[in-house]
Amino acid sequence: MGILSWIIIGLIAGWLAGEVMRGSGFGIVGDIIVGIVGALLGGFIATALFNVPDPLTGINITTLIVAFLGSVLLIAILRAVRGARV
What residue numbers bound the domain in which 12 lies? Predict the structure, then answer.
């Protein structure tokens, strides 16, 4: 997947995850980063646990779902870590 498609999927997945998880948010750049890292996390989990071959293959619905679920998981982890420090 090219860098442009990573950014597009990251933006969409990060924004969707931010809307679903409701909270202070990370801003547009933060959403892109959360979306890209979430896509990597979701892709790793989909491959390792569910034997999905190459879940991140371009701009399609499967990639968006994997990136979205990874982003939601990443936001939950970030909130748990941030909450533990306060």
Answer: 3-85
